[in-house]
Amino acid sequence: MNAMNPEGYVTSDGRKIGGVLMEMKNITLRFGGVKAITDISFDIREGEIRAIIGPNGAGKSSMLNVISGFYIPQEGEVWFRGKKRAPMKPYEVAQQGIARTFQNIALFEGMSVLDNIMTGRLTLMKSGMLDQAMWWGRAQREETEHREKVEKIIDFLEIQHIRKTPVGRLPYGLKKRVELARALAAEPKLLLLDEPMAGMNVEEKEDMCRFILDVNDEFGTTITLIEHDMGVVMDLSDRVVVMDYGKKIGDGPPDEVRANPDVINAYLGVSHD
Amino acid sequence: MAATDGLNSIPALLDRNARLFGARPAWREKEFGIWQCWTWAEGAAEIRAIALGFLALGLNRGDHVAVIGRNRPALYWSMVAAQMCGAVPVPLYQDAVAEEMAYVLDHCGARFVVCGDQEQVDKVLEIQDRLPHVEQIIYVDKRGMRKYDHSHMNALADVEAEGKAGHYRFDAELETRIAELDYDSTCVMLYTSGTTGKPKGVVLSNRNIIETSKNSSEFDKLRPGDDVLAYLPMAWVGDFIFSVGQAMWTGFCVNCPESAATMMTDLREIGPTYFFAPPRVFEGQLTQVMIRMEDAGRLKKRMFDHYMAVARRVGPAILDGKPVSAADRLAYWIGDKLVYGPLKNTLGFSRVRVGYTAGEAIGPEIFDFYRSLGINLKQLYGQTEASVFITQQPDGQVRSDTVGVPSPGVEVRIAENGEVFYRSPGTFMSYFKNPESTASTKDAEGWVATGDAGFFEEATGHLRIIDRAKDVGKMADGRLFAPKYVENKLKFYPNILEAVVFGNGRDRCTAFINIDLTAVGNWAERNNIAYSSYQELAGHPRVYEAIKAHVEEVNRSVAEDPMLSGCQVHRFCILHKELDADDGEMTRTRKVRRNIIEQKYADLIAGLYDGADSVYTETEVTYEDGRKGAIRATVRMMDAATVAGQRRAA
Lengths: 273, 650
Known about the structure:
The complex is a heterodimer.
Chain A: E1 9-10, E2 16-17, E3 20-31, E4 34-45, E5 49-53, H1 60-67, E6 75-80, E7 83-84, H2 90-96, E8 98-101, H3 113-119, H4 129-134, H5 138-156, H6 172-185, E9 190-194, H7 202-219, E10 222-226, H8 230-236, E11 239-244, E12 247-252, H9 254-259, H10 261-268
Helix pairs in contact in A: 3-6
Chain B: H1 10-20, E1 25-31, E2 34-39, H2 40-57, E3 64-68, H3 73-84, E4 88-92, H4 98-108, E5 112-115, H5 118-126, E6 136-139, E7 153-155, H6 156-165, H7 167-180, E8 186-191, E9 201-205, H8 206-219, E10 227-229, H9 237-251, E11 253-256, H10 263-270, E12 274-276, H11 279-294, H12 298-319, H13 326-347, E13 354-357, H14 364-372, E14 377-383, E15 388-392, E16 405-406, E17 411-414, E18 419-423, E19 430-431, H15 435-441, E20 448-456, E21 463-468, E22 473-474, E23 480-481, H16 483-491, E24 496-502, E25 509-515, H17 517-526, H18 534-538, H19 541-559, E26 569-574, H20 594-600, H21 602-610, E27 614-622, E28 628-636, E29 638-639
Parallel strand pairs in B: 1-11, 3-4, 3-5, 5-6, 6-7, 10-11, 12-13, 13-14, 25-26
Antiparallel strand pairs in B: 1-2, 8-9, 9-19, 14-15, 15-16, 17-18, 18-20, 20-21, 22-23, 24-25, 26-29, 27-28
Helix pairs in contact in B: 1-2, 1-9, 2-3, 2-6, 2-7, 8-9, 12-13, 12-14
């Protein structure tokens, strides 16, 4: 494994992984007296599917929130695309090319699938509110362009049949897919998925896995995901960070991580005889 | 041949259409939320480019080109392009699993396989080691295909581009190939679904397809402005006739849905003028309407009920052009503005001029519902070997219990044993690589056995299909015994899930009934009837009363038919368990296995005939995990009133 090569590496299925896209350096995050994350460092490379796993309360979601810029760590640095990142507003994060989905779906329930996905393109729209209200000239042209992009995503994620359906009427598995669609609509460089398979049945999980792989393959999007389902993580990801009680206890390709005694300990427990 | 003026192949028809209707829409497909349209001229250019690309890849005369995928213009084009090259298109069922595909791909020896998307490509790759003759896999949808080994694989767009780029090299060759096509060359090969034994490849010539398309298009006065929705499997002969044969002959537009799941939305958006659906589609839509009406406000509900009653009374008569009083016409007109029109619009049937259903028996209520709305829904009877059409109903002579008169150019005769035979211009050439089956199906004079039993109604000349010929028997006194005919009538009642009628060689008929747990359970709930099991509900006296009423109603309807009046059900019992494929009582496609049921329930059948009030029985059942167990029950037998046969005046 030459994952430390700054030029990137080639995965077992022949995908080329590029240089470092984001680097976390000695991150420590505290909530009052509680240490959620203790001195964690790892990097995310361009074109990679990077997983963060760990038992409940290990600090995975906190880590994701640090990556997305929502939490600001007390110690440590976040480097994104070769620059040290300063504290940002959420829209600045989106403009930087980071999009995410949420563990407990955060869609606009009353709006149609199409409108929900269109909101994902908000930061890419140039025409102002007045233009859009008048619906004339540039605003109209722009909306057509954005709609085209959105339709490509709808086609890609195979949700044509629910295009006009209000999100509130959809089953859970489809809502997850719509959320992924909205994140994709922002054309992110880095896509963060917080438990994309949670609560899904086997068939829905298989679909979601295929979509995640396809997104990575077709758009070259770098993906960082948190997941509980170990089978899914091991199949999907190129490299895995393992966390336990806010500390990093493993980092590397799935096979290596699976053989790591600390990881086995955290997940399966050890016999004390 | 003069009848078609040298238009003796699909490519020749395409060429004519491109000249005649160049700027008219020929294919539409909804993609990215918008209906994309290709005119005849644009489509013809695409097809030519694909054909040139096929030549560049080395497609030979007589090769078979398998086509697998959902209905898309690109796949229809590939079929015509293959024909241009002198090859034979073989559309396959897209939902077949790889194993099933292996047989057909191996049997036809396809060198080229055109797949709709990654899913289909994966299936072909899975069985590729058993298909040494497959040389090229061509796919339409590029998604997910980037990482595949492309040494023997191409995107259709690339094949097309290659054809366009290299046209000067292959133009002459293509012209020669097209010129070689004649009326007797093979147009398409379609595999039967193979419910009995291995699928058979039915070879249909240009004559079969074009003559049939011409006759049937003229029969229903199809015209260039018509629209069809192509959503039924491409491997099915009906789709080939509607979406290729008739579309090419008439020059109407073929519309392909965005995906299988959007079919109903797409139907509404396109509003086809010519529409085909199997009974289950109509049933499903009707159920949807009824469920939504149950939830509607009281005013809407009352309006719906009132005007549907009007429609049922006078709608079919108005549709058939029969005399109807002015008051009724006015009421129907108002109903059309308030109910039928909006309803048809919601269903996507506003523009339907000609609608067909076939494949299995359609419930009279369902059939009448659509007819009463003013939708010209008709029935036809056909099979792959006939290029679809054997009989069909002319406008104005439509009933739910007949399948119509022989289609133009088709001769039909009924054999001694009641089996229906036909001979027509559409009669297939042969079964591919299977001369024995060809000989046993088609005799030297061209008559083909359908395997169905039926008879012509004397008064109207309409054909009525009663059963599979092998199931039709004689009763002790020589009257006709057609179990499925009666079973179908029984099964039209929502309470009855399954029925098995006995009586072959006996003096009267009896029946087993399976109740529909959903329908009867629902009814029980509304009537405060408590039950704890299927068995208990099935044996409930009030359920027996309800079923008895159904049986007697069926008896009255069966008695109206002098030929079949012997099939009235004298006694019946409601089975204590559902007939199940796991127990071998039905096939996986839910067809009853009579012999097995007769053996297994011999004690109950004996009870039905010896006059016993009830019979105690034990039945072995197989649970889903494969374990076996036994159900014990005392099954009641019940008499049903029958109608004495009416003697007809001599």
